[in-house]
Amino acid sequence: MQLLSDRVLNMATSATLAMAAKARELRNEGKDIIGLSLGEPDFDTPEFIKEAAIQAINDNYNSYTPVDGYGELKEAIITKFKRDNNLTYTPAQIVVSTGAKQSLANVAAVLTNAGDEVIMPCPYWVSYADIVKLFDGVPVEVVTSIATDFKMTPEQLEAAITPKTKMIWFSSPCNPSGSIYSAEELRALADVLVKYPNIYVVSDEIYEHINYVGGHASMAQFEDMYDRTITVNGVSKAFAMTGWRIGYIGAPEKIARACNKIQGQMTSGANCIAQRATITALNESPNRVKYMIDEFKVRRDLILGLLNEIEGFETNTPQGAFYVFPNVSAFFGKTIKGKTINNASDLSLFLLEEALVATVDGAAFGNPNCLRISYAASQEQIIEAIKRIKEALS
């Protein structure tokens, strides 16, 4: 009898976390590694949020929380959805979880049966496919390209739908490509989905406020999609609160109740202090963190300009998030410094070992021709990192 379950043996290790671990190993050996692999803002959590957490500690918040979140936090989420997205939810439609990753896992657990298909436009966030597989679902990849800013067309969506299709998962702004679906583009996808009333949409909007073009759109804003859309969000990216681990969903009540039920058996409620801090974060205007978004835009323009000076990197202009996703297939089959580059994984490892810069192989995101490079780093680090990459590849 084998010790470990087939479930865990068949699961891939998170590529972003694996690269971060490899980079830490090299740092511990004394190597000067510049990390452009993790999706984590390099800003401190804003003072007004930290003060709210300190106040919660002083107010003796230390007990178990309601499974689906404090009532005051659910009200703050409802206010946020109405203010920022023009979406109306009730407390029964909100579930607070330990990060948006748990929110996604909850949805997969309550909606997926063995063999159910989940459509994922490529590239997609690194954990989508394995979360779906964990609950015996089947990821269906829809390949997009840099020519279309990595966005799925209505024709591609229609072609991917089968009698087994249960959901479509996507993020906008997208991790890893930074692409943003406009309201018109979402409406065009919705026009396909209205013909298939049993397909649900998981709209991951965790990067909502890191948007350089304005006008964030949500699939749930359409009346004919509202009751079929699970909107996933959280505070990790825009508020620089990755370690606080708070995510949430707005969903049809039946789905929210099911997520509450399964979370009650798996983890119970999220951290009490983090929840109290999140109440303050969400009740404030997003303009309180605009300084971060302004700096990310400067860094985006900086890194694009530097990458475009390297022959073999093909880039588009990301509209949000804090990543570039260049096509690097021009290097495949080449030998550089005695090392043959067969794929993006080889190139990512080459850049780590030769340039001392950590990136992530695009295959983990469903696109093996690309690298994900985070610009959640200082301008000085970005300039030095791309300089190293250019020198290593020349």
Automatic annotation (TrEMBL):
GO biological process entries: amino acid metabolic process
Group of enzyme by EC: transferase
GO molecular function: pyridoxal phosphate binding; transaminase activity
Keyword Isomerase: no
Record keyword Protein biosynthesis present: no
PROSITE patterns according to UniProt: AA_TRANSFER_CLASS_1 (PS00105)
EC number(s) from the headed UniProt entry: 2.6.1.-
Pfam family, one: Aminotran_1_2
Cofactor(s) this protein cannot do without: pyridoxal 5'-phosphate
The Aminotransferase class I/classII large domain, residue ranges: 31-389
Recorded family membership: Belongs to the class-I pyridoxal-phosphate-dependent aminotransferase family.
Name the UniProt record assigns to this protein: Aminotransferase
Species this chain originates from: Aestuariibaculum sediminum
